[in-house]
């Protein structure tokens, strides 16, 4: 399993770098969505996997980023790329503001609260807040990507935009694991009381996790709006949050696990689409089997190294 974690991501990235040229337009669209969902799932992993907080409202921040891009482009004429800073900042600020009153909650209490936030967000979108969100129909006719005055309308261009965002996210995740906040969140996940006893301000790091995860999800929202040139409320409902939650649980809190989780939860059903409703039947049993055989996820995360004398068993304690 360590070999998978070590060599899996580089090999997957190498394949993804050349993948769109081997795919037809339908599968190019699936590949773009895979990249977008991978970014959102990694942002969910910061809150759920790295910090141990049961958040089932990540689609809220994903949608907030997408709608920020759509509103700025459709209503105010901003180029798509120019909307990226606000598409990151606004969800991040809302993540911090929303997390402040609720981070003291644990387990299913936090879970239900985040579900409520997600439902409220979708209702706000459907009721066309301030005449900006377009109501149930959403916002359509967004501009294509434009770089140095050239419109990038092909799916291959959108694919590499999504791929660049995924690489940026992976860079953030890698640096987070080695940083002081990353270590603090690991201790928080393992035992909050013990973390507090050694001087870690758990409230600050919980809010930090929500803010960072929300900002990354918002960036993914920009890519989503670019791919479809449209946004609508049903793309960010509670069911989407359940999907991102399940990806981290099934895959495990590691980069390899999250990417594999997205493949299992999103790409596999597309592969078996010809089997109609039977694909969900098979898919559901596959999920159950995965959780029975790998309860910590298919590729669980590891943090640090256990000294060999603690795991040998034949040199000590005799």
> For the residues shown, what is the average pLDDT?
85
Uncertain spans, ≥5 residues at pLDDT below 50?
Answer: 313-318
- Find the structural class using helix and strand composition: mainly alpha
Largest sheet: 2 strands, antiparallel
Number of alpha- plus pi-helical segments = 13
Q: What is the H/E order?
A: HHHHHEEEHHHHEHHHH
**Percent helix:** 55-70%
- Tally of DSSP β-strands: 4
Tell me the Rg in angstroms.
20 Å
Distance between the termini: 30 Å
Shape: globular
Strand content: under 5%
Biggest β-sheet: strands ordered side by side in the sheet: 1-4
Could you walk me through the main structural features you see in this protein, from its secondary elements to its overall organization?
With 318 residues, this protein is mostly helical. It has a domain at 18-238. 68% of the residues lie in helices and 3% in strands. It has helices at residues 2-18, 25-50, 58-74, 84-99, 107-126, 155-178, 180-190, 192-197, 202-228, 238-251, 255-271, 278-293, 308-312; strands at 139-140, 145-147, 150-152, 230-231. The strands form two sheets. A two-stranded antiparallel sheet has the order 1-4. Helix 1 crosses helix 11, helix 3 packs antiparallel against helix 4 and helix 4 packs antiparallel against helix 9. The radius of gyration is 20 Å and the shape is globular. The model is unreliable at 313-318 (pLDDT under 50).
């Amino acid at each position: 399993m360590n070999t998978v974690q070590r060599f899996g991501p580089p090999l997957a990235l190498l394949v993804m770098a050349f993948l769109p040229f081997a795919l037809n337009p339908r599968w190019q669209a699936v590949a773009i969505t895979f990249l977008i969902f991978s970014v959102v799932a990694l942002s969910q992993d910061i809150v759920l996997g790295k910090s141990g907080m049961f958040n089932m409202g990540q689609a809220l921040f994903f949608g907030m980023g997408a709608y920020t891009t759509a509103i700025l482009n459709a209503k105010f004429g901003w180029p798509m790329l120019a909307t990226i800073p606000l598409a990151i900042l606004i969800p991040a600020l809302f993540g911090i503001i929303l997390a402040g009153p609720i981070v003291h909650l644990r387990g299913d209490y936090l879970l239900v609260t985040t579900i409520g936030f997600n439902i409220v967000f979708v209702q706000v979108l459907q009721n066309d807040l301030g005449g900006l969100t377009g109501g149930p129909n959403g916002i359509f006719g967004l501009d294509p990507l434009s770089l140095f005055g050239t419109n990038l309308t092909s799916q291959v261009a959108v694919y590499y935009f999504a791929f660049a965002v995924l690489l940026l996210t992976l860079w953030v995740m890698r640096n987070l694991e080695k940083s002081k906040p990353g270590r603090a969140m690991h201790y928080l996940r393992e035992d909050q009381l013990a973390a507090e006893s050694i001087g870690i301000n758990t409230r600050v790091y919980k809010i930090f996790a929500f803010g960072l995860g929300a900002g990354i999800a918002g960036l993914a929202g920009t890519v989503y709006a670019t791919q479809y040139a449209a946004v609508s409320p049903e793309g960010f409902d509670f069911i989407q949050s359940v999907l991102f939650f399940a990806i981290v649980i099934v895959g495990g809190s590691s980069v390899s696990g999250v990417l594999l989780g997205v493949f299992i939860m999103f790409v596999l059903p597309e592969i078996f689409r010809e089997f109609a409703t039977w694909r969900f039947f098979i898919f559901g049993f596959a999920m159950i089997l995965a959780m029975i055989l790998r309860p910590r996820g298919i590729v669980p995360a590891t943090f640090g190294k256990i000294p060999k004398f603690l795991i040998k068993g034949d040199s000590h304690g005799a």
